[in-house]
Amino acid sequence: MEYCKRCLFNSNICIIGNLQCNYCDLHDNLEKSYIDFNEVLSNIQENKADKYNCITGISGGIDSSTLLFAAVKKWNLRPLVIHFDNHWNTEIAKKNMNKLVTKLNIDIINYQVNKEEFDNLNKAFLKAGVPDLDVPNDVAMTKLMYETASKYNIKYILNGHCFKTEGSTPKKWTYMDSEYIQDIYKTFYNKSLTNFPLFKFSDQIKYGIENIQQVRPFYYQNIDRKILDAEMKEFIGWENYGWKHGENLYTDFVGSYLLPKKFGIDKRIVYLSAQIRMGELTKKTAMRKLNMEATFDISIIKKEYLDLADSSIKSRDNYKKFDYVKHK
């Protein structure tokens, strides 16, 4: 096995070339590609007529909260906010969301997923023996963002991902495909999903024609994320929920417990590597943090979920996947 000379990635995770992994290369290329955010901001602000000129999601986590705060208080945007409630929010996340939305005085749409169907979808993925256990959340949120943007004639979706603070997840670790999700559900429940929002290939075409664009403000060099985080926290009296993605119990269960214990996937490698690349941690300190076992209180998870987590590991190839090459 080869190890990246710079971060915590190895050749089991990604490609190592010239002693450095392709994710460090990606980081360096993004750092070099300077584009002034003010130019992008002007394009979003150009729409003076409609009530909203952008849309963004909120979870109660640090990334989405800081993005929303900056959009309103720093960039003078008029966002419509959506929240995807999968019934696993922590109380702290709810408080953070409520305080931020109230103090900013903005409109929010709260989408509640059908609880029975979503629970069964989670159980189907646990039975399936694949590591993509939290992918349905991302697919549903993507669908809701584009669908809502289209409904309100909004052309810009603000995305809170930040390669500087959270890095990029290796492709081997996750697979996102609506046909794959549907087949796993049908395999174990012998019926199709009827209520769950799925972002399909046809949606990519539809919203592409409508020219709805995703913008990642934290990718731009003249955005100081640390200052924005600090100001947002002071603005609402931010309550800390512990660690990355700890604002949602199911996401935390998957990332802190299931993935490392069952699949050997520790997402802390991604977050710590991002901090190494930014010079915020030495590799030695990051390794020491990684060697501390991630903790999760499994008593808050129902026994039926924990029992299903013991299913045998299977290949993704056991399930149908969308053939993008065939449909080009």
Which helices and strands, and how do they pair?
Blueprint: E1 16-17, E2 20-21, H1 22-32, H2 37-45, E3 54-57, H3 62-74, E4 79-85, H4 91-104, E5 108-112, H5 115-128, H6 135-151, E6 156-158, H7 163-166, H8 178-189, H9 201-209, E7 213-215, H10 225-236, H11 249-263, H12 268-277, H13 283-290, H14 303-308
Parallel strand pairs: 3-4, 3-6, 4-5, 6-7
Antiparallel strand pairs: 1-2
Helix pairs in contact: 3-4, 3-10, 5-8, 12-13
What does it look like?
Helix 3 links the parallel strand 3 and strand 4 (about 80-85). The strands form two sheets. The protein has a five-stranded parallel β-sheet, sandwiched between helices. The radius of gyration is 20 Å and the shape is globular. About 45% of the residues lie in helices and about 10% in strands. Helix 12 (about 270-275) runs antiparallel to helix 13. With about 325 residues, it is α/β, with parallel strands linked by helices. About 35% of the residues are buried. It is built from 14 helices and seven strands. It starts with 15 loop residues before the first strand and ends in a 20-residue tail after the last helix. The longest helix has 17 residues, at about 135-150. It has helices spanning about 20-30, 35-45, 60-75, 90-105, 115-130, 135-150, 165, 180-190, 200-210, 225-235, 250-265, 270-275, 285-290, 305-310; strands at about 15, 20, 55, 80-85, 110, 155-160, 215.
